[in-house]
Design a protein that fits this description.
Layout: H1 2-13, H2 18-29, H3 34-41, H4 49-80, H5 105-119, E1 123-124, E2 130-131, H6 133-136, E3 162-163, H7 170-178, E4 182-191, E5 203-213, H8 218-233, E6 239-243, E7 249-258, E8 274-283, H9 285-290, E9 299-306, H10 307-315, H11 328-334
Parallel strand pairs: 1-4
Antiparallel strand pairs: 2-3, 4-5, 5-9, 6-7, 7-8, 8-9
Helix pairs in contact: 1-4, 2-4, 5-10
Length: about 350
């Protein structure tokens, strides 16, 4: 044991690095080290009880001595090692990844629409997603027993309020607030109890538009629709205007867009080559009366751009379910750096 102590001290005196110190530790205290081997090779069968006790005590003292000397030398080597200044660049350190955020495709479409409409003199107005039955239905010429309510499968809350089924709920609310004349859009989220497929979701986004002034006609409506589409898609797109029924407009129209995903051939997104994009029409006189506006003096038109479908057509997204999946990789494909 004394010989092992002497060899340990000699080895420690020549150690100049932590790696060398680790090798010394293994040579003496490792599984095959000299101290461990000494304990394994001892022939306890030839020792008396007192000899066994004395051997075990001295062996423990040797292990304690070796461990203390190794720790002492480790602290000495660490203290003498050159220290890097806190402001010094360490070229060996691993780099830190930097990930920029991305805007959602619907957000991009909404921002672009808001810019276009503001350039045409429209105000951007936001309304509540939790709405009263009055503004969502009754003020829009849809009384409680009206069959059109069957078209609006609705999420009702326990306090008799509802998740709005369309941003049209902002029409009378805004007219009561600002009066006429007015030009405004109302972008936002809507909710319907829909059967989900590639072009239908229970949560989607619309951008309602409203113009009320004197001598407004269908010609004004068509002019605004053409301006929107030309600026959004920045190319000629094929559209069709067909009659459509909405209780809050008269006459009502459906503006359909020739599907830009399949080129009008028909696909799971559009079905027959056309996709409903902008329901619109002249504001019904009853809606104006609910807003306290005389329909003999003022007229107007309203439209609802499907923001979700607009984003699908603009960015070539084939399935509406991608937009609500929460996968950041969807955003990163279409976003641009601001």
């Amino acid at each position: 044991m004394e010989k092992i102590k002497e060899l340990l001290l000699q080895a420690l005196s020549s150690a100049t690095s932590l790696d060398a110190l680790e090798k010394i530790r293994i040579d003496f205290l490792g599984r095959k080290g000299s101290i461990t081997t000494l304990a394994k090779n001892a022939d306890f069968s030839k020792m008396s009880v007192e000899e066994k006790k004395g051997f075990g005590q001295k062996l423990n003292e040797l292990k304690t001595f070796a461990t203390a000397k190794l720790v002492e030398m480790q602290e000495r080597l660490q203290a003498s090692a050159p220290r890097r200044k806190s402001n010094e660049l360490d070229l060996t350190a691993p780099g830190k990844g930097r990930r920029l955020g991305a805007l959602h495709p619907i957000t991009l479409a909404q921002m672009e629409l808001e810019d276009i409409f503001q350039g045409m003199g429209f105000s951007v107005v936001y309304g509540p997603e939790i709405e009263s039955e009055y503004f969502c239905f009754e003020a829009l010429n849809i009384p409680h027993d009206h069959p059109a309510r069957d078209m609006q499968d609705t999420f009702w809350l326990k306090n008799q309020l509802i998740l709005r089924t369309h941003t049209s709920a902002n029409q009378v609310r805004t007219l009561l607030r600002f009066g006429a004349p007015i030009r405004a859009i109302f972008p936002g989220r809507c909710f319907r109890y829909e059967s989900i497929d590639p072009s239908h979701e229970n949560t989607f986004y619309q951008c309602e538009g409203l113009v009320v002034d004197k001598n407004i006609s269908v010609a004004n409506l068509i002019a605004v629709m053409k301006t929107i589409l030309s600026q959004v898609f920045k190319r000629d797109v094929k559209v069709r205007l067909r009659p459509g029924y909405f209780p809050f407009v008269e006459p009502g129209f459906e503006l359909d867009l020739n599907c830009l995903i399949c080129g009008g051939k028909g696909c799971p997104t559009c079905g027959d080559g056309w996709i409903e994009l902008i329901p619109c029409g002249l504001i019904h006189p009853e809606v104006l009366r609910h807003a306290g506006i005389d329909p003999k003096e003022y007229s107007g038109f309203a439209f609802g751009v499907g923001l979700t479908r607009l984003a699908m057509m603009k960015f070539g997204i084939r399935d509406i379910r991608y937009l609500n999946c929460g996968d950041l990789r969807v955003n990163e494909q279409f976003s641009v750096l601001a």
